[in-house]
Specification:
The structure is a homodimer. Chain A is α+β, with helices and mostly antiparallel strands. The first copy, chain A, folds into two domains: 142 residues, Creatine Amidinohydrolase, Chain A, domain 1, CATH 3.40.350; 220 residues, Creatine Amidinohydrolase. In chain A, the strands form four sheets. The first copy, chain A, has a six-stranded mixed β-sheet, with helices on both faces. In chain A, strand 16 and strand 17 form a beta hairpin. In chain A, helix 4 packs parallel to helix 5, helix 7 crosses helix 8 and helix 9 runs antiparallel to helix 10. The interface between A and B is large, with 72 and 72 residues.
Chain lengths: 372, 372
């Protein structure tokens, strides 16, 4: 049922428990999709519905306790969780809170992720009720420390997602023709991801504009591709619950000298960061390797962690001193300003190895790809 | 830029401000995607990245204040928001919190959604910092009360999403053949949604099993469709930021008498709920109309609100006394147990009108569809 053998989840729980002993915590409370899945394998798109909270308690010893809507009991049991306590959600008067308070009663110090990139997936009114009965503290960064380093089994999954992205991008020149609306290119790219093996496509962004683009987060317009455009597509597709996150650029017709050079700079920056990657280097070191080539300012991010979420810790910024370890999966994502308001962005996915790094995405060529 | 004219957002803010005056609130703080979009039109898939918080302050008078990562400033300005304050996220030492505290300083009583189906999209450590500087209270249900009733312009969008779902489902018999893996059917269904006009497909669930199914939330297996299966596909696709959420059932080969009857019961239950729908009826009334036919227990939900999220208030349960109003959009989602462990679920989308209800999805036929 789960994508990994039971030993994978047992190892995660065991590591968490060792860290909890060190931090003086008696249990960890989890409320978000990747956190619950990390410790159980519980995989479903049902989280898209915001109306039901889900809780997992990982105690300092013994197996996890799932406190969940009854609709999820059977699937959670199939993942090997033995202590499952359910309520018939939605039940506005008591949305699992009494059950959760009971489940936490045996544990004195309970932590939950409170730091950067964390969030609380339950109503604040219920969070207040819970804290009145049982004050919750920070998890001492345990979940971050665990998730930031991927196991060999996780790396296999992320690599498989990247291979699907490679195949989908290889297909883009077949449908992204001059005259095709960018909105249709977005639809076709998502279909290509699915038909290449993605389970779903939570993220697809991009841009197309003359000689570079200024905005990489807007929905696609219906404007047709035209000669002189640089088309960029950035996909966060999922296979077995693991993401890839990388992009590709194409010049529609022959690129201008400025676009050609920008792509060379992006390629060189990515290669420089790849070369700088090894255990013991910092996130900042990778940022510096890229910033030296693309001339980034100190406020930009040039890559990030990747795994069960589209973006994870660390951030490749001038401020992030996270020390790289074998098994961290990263995106290298330099951007270069061609002129004010005209950017280009390139992104690859890599994994830190004992001796350096391996590519997970198949690196792009130094020359920008051309669609005639 | 926004999908609605400025008057739509102005009307929403004006209604919120009238409710704030009544509730004694000086501002409302919003942190989640649909909440920020509701008041600004700000639409981007960038929210998939959990690493950056976004804040919107709607004051008791005047326009909204966006406190957001600098990467979003240009797009937010294009949506007509005039007061935009940015920081270069990610910036772990101060992830926008100082800016937010400054933005809230002029407002004495600040509320945020804390009730059912709400969540807090920011780290708890920052939430604590914020509350230490400026205690935040409940929004008195204002955001729920606003979002639960859709405007005419919103209903047009949801109806368009439903039409895309209709078109995609009409295409299913072309690819869901005996022998096709369910996982491939899921991929093809998502592609069909995209090619019928969806911008993306955040939710796709379903099942296929002999004479009915037991589990509607697991990822698809690679098991091929076989004669005697009932195939169910349930899609939450998005167009212009608005969802549809309905499902369809097909019998692979001729249905058994029990499956045929189950589909009749689901159809009859849906029709009964549709007939019971009118302003002044309650969510519970619709539940009762369906439960009387499908024999539901008091703990099940047989439908829910729908709009900018896949599931919204109210819940069609025995407990939900929400009084229906013109403009509420609902799913009718009865399920019937054929035998222990074998269910069938049917779902349609409707809107409450002055005199009753209108269909948004094109209702299914009483006889289950057959794929030979």
């Amino acid at each position: 049922m789960s994508i990994f053998p039971k030993t994978e989840y047992a190892a995660r729980i065991s590591k968490a428990q060792a860290m909890m002993a060190e931090a003086g915590l008696d249990a960890i409370l989890l409320t978000t999709e990747p956190e619950v899945r990390y410790f159980t394998g519980y995989l479903t798109r049902f989280w898209e519905s915001p109306c039901r909270p889900w809780f997992l308690v990982v105690p300092a010893s013994g197996g996890p306790i799932a406190v969940i809507p009854s609709i999820g009991a059977e699937l959670m049991a199939a993942h090997g969780v033995q202590d499952i306590r359910t309520w018939p959600a939605p039940q506005p008067d008591d949305e699992g809170i009494s059950l959760l308070i009971d489940a936490l009663a045996p544990f004195k110090r309970v932590g939950t992720p409170m730091g950067q990139q964390s969030s609380l997936r339950m109503p604040l009114a219920d969070w207040s009720k819970l804290n009145a009965a049982h004050p919750i503290t920070d998890d001492a960064g345990i979940v971050r420390r665990l998730r930031i380093v991927k196991s060999a089994a996780e790396i296999v999954q992320i690599k498989a997602a990247c291979a699907i992205g490679d195949a989908a991008f290889a297909n883009v020149p077949n449908f992204a023709k001059p005259g095709t609306a960018l909105s249709q290119v977005y639809r076709d790219t998502q279909s290509a991801c699915l038909q290449s093996g993605a389970d779903w496509v939570p993220y697809l962004a991009g841009a197309a504009d003359q000689g570079g683009y200024g905005d990489v987060i807007s929905p696609a317009s219906d404007k047709p591709l035209a000669a002189g455009d640089v088309l960029m597509l950035d996909t966060g597709l999922v296979r077995n619950g693991y993401f890839c996150d990388f992009d590709r650029n194409w010049s529609i017709g022959a690129p201008s000298a400025a676009v050609a050079k920008a792509h060379h700079d992006l390629f060189d920056a990515t290669q420089a960061a790849f070369t700088a990657t090894k255990p013991g280097a910092t996130a900042r070191d990778l940022w510096t390797a890229m910033a030296d080539i693309v001339g980034a300012t100190e406020t930009g991010r040039l890559g990030h962690g990747l795994g069960m979420s589209l973006t994870e810790w660390p951030s490749l910024t001038a401020q992030d001193e996270t020390v790289l370890e074998t098994g961290m999966v990263l995106t290298l994502e330099p951007s270069v300003e061609i002129e004010p308001g005209k950017l280009m962005v390139c992104e690859e996915n890599i994994v830190v190895t004992d001796n350096g790094a391996d590519w997970l995405s198949t690196p792009v060529t130094r020359d920008i790809m051309v669609i005639e």
